[in-house]
Amino acid sequence: MRPFFNPEKMTFSFPRIYPILDSSAIPTSDRVKFLLRLGCSLADAGVTLLEYRNKKGIDAELLADARILRAAMPFGQVKLILDDRADLVDLAGFDGVHVDAGDLSPADARSLVGPERIVGTFGGSEILVPGVLNEPADYLSIGPVFATTTKQTDKAPIGVEGVRRLRYQAGKEAVLAAAAGITLETAPSVLAAGASMVAVAAALFTAPDPSAEYSRWARTIGS
Questions:
Q1: 3-class DSSP state for residue 1?
Q2: Predicted confidence (pLDDT) per residue in 139-170, tens digit
Q3: Which of these, 112, 116, 96, 111, lies nearest to 9 by C-alpha position?
Q4: Cα dihedral sign for 120, 122, 123, 125?
Q5: How much is the pLDDT for 154?
């Protein structure tokens, strides 16, 4: 068992659906109203984990968006994860951070956010990242599973068989979040191949009503 992860101490049960809200899906006009409505409706639909990703905005925009989401999605009901910026997690009132390859190391992120918050990191594509099971991370993102336009990557899609291979390499206990290009039609096979949860961005947030779309996913694959 890797040194940090202890399932007996984890009070949070990771869901099967992990929504990723990219700032590109947020309109510039009526931004506050949009985020309040979106956050409240997602919480009401049963979302318990959500990542907010803003690769281009300045700190003030990122924190403003984050605080609105926190106000709309109650602490204790929804775990909010900030992409990249472990240094802003506390100011945002968020529950954790996701750091990819090239960002802070999981150990540095952990030192910034503390032992109680969630830390996620990149776990692998073709193969599991060497040593990643020994990192102080609560979940590992894997992929891209399929082609995606939501996040820039130079990695080739690994497909369902790649998910199966990474599950075998990671063992039974690791929490694996399969990401990129996953649709409601492909999600069941990705989960069956060994993913603990599917990270979903465009498939949810390009829908006319993301909360209704989330509910449709939850009815199909569970929440």
A1: coil
A2: 999 999 998 776 667 789 999 999 999 999 99
A3: 116
A4: positive
A5: 78
At 206-215, the pLDDT tens digits run 999 999 999 9
Q: Are the C-beta atoms of residues 77 and 43 closer than 8 Å to each other?
A: yes
Residue 136 has which token pair? 């102080």
pTM: 0.93
Q: CA 196, 200, 205 angle in degrees (round to 5)? A: 155
**CA–CA separation, 192 vs 204, rounded Å?**
21
DSSP class of residue 20 equals: E
Residue recorded with tokens 């109650």: 74
CB 174 within 8 A of CB 133: yes
CA distances from 95 to 102, 114, 184, 194, 223 (A): 22, 10, 27, 25, 19
Q: Percent of the chain having pLDDT more than 90?
A: 88
For the chain, give every domain's residue range.
14-221
CB atoms within 10 A of CB 59: 12
At 33, list the tokens: 């109203």
SS3 212: helix
Q: Which backbone phi and psi does 54 adopt, to 5 degrees?
A: -140, 95
Tokens 């291979």, residue located: 165
CATH number for 14-221: choose from 3.20.20.70, 1.10.3130.10, 3.40.50.2300, 3.40.50.150: 3.20.20.70
